[in-house]
Amino acid sequence: MTEWGATQPDPVYGESLRLDELLSLLCVNDEVDRMFFVSTHQACEIWFAVVLRHLEDVIDALTLNDGVKAAELLERLPRIMLVIFEHFEVLRTLKFESFDRIRTSVGSASGFQSVQYREIEYLCGARDTRFLNTVGFRDRDRRKLKERLEGKSLSQVFLEYQHRGSERVVNRIRDALHDFDDSMRELRTRHARIAEHFLSSRPGTAGTTGADYLRRSTSRTLFPEIFERESPGTVGR
């Protein structure tokens, strides 16, 4: 127990970031290319968690009629996506033989199985329930996604808010949603290019058709209720 009047020392950099815990979860002792590949995907998942938190706060802000805060949070998201883009680009530095070796070692594991990515889609309003049957999802993964489906989507909350907010703020939010939607579409495009680079016409993991599957996914919108740009029957990550 700290004595009365004594002050706690300020946490140092590593403690503030909980680096010991974080690094213990990273594959830093694996073979260098495998560590590079896995850490790149881990970093993407960290950013997906950040995106999810922003989207949750946007929904809360719109529910409380704070459109300015919602717009500010949304306008940050395309910048976050730029960081994620670079994770995909840096994977191009892998040699083909290294990529094939790593791909074999991870078995059926696939970015298609990213639960957080599906959470982003469901939270925004792209609610294709077929993804609940994704091979590799655990029961708790499906429960998490079903919880997202039970709540209101960002699309629904925005459509309700637009009748209460000022035209200027509503248009600002709509533009921010559009920019974020475009940035997510660009993410799928980058993913498709990486798949084409390494796989060519070979099949992908998790039962997908690889680059062709990813290329078809680029037409999907996160906000079909708002923008209605989704192609009927098109599914993808």
TrEMBL record:
Any Pfam family: Trp_dioxygenase
Highest rank taxon of the organism: Bacteria
Record key words, sorted: Dioxygenase, Oxidoreductase
Gene Ontology molecular function, alphabetical: heme binding; L-tryptophan 2,3-dioxygenase activity; metal ion binding
Record flagged with keyword Oxidoreductase: yes
Keyword match Protein transport: no
GO biological process entries: L-tryptophan catabolic process to acetyl-CoA; L-tryptophan catabolic process to kynurenine
Full protein name: Tryptophan 2,3-dioxygenase (Vermilion)
Organism of origin: Saccharomonospora viridis
Classification lineage: Bacteria, Bacillati, Actinomycetota, Actinomycetes, Pseudonocardiales
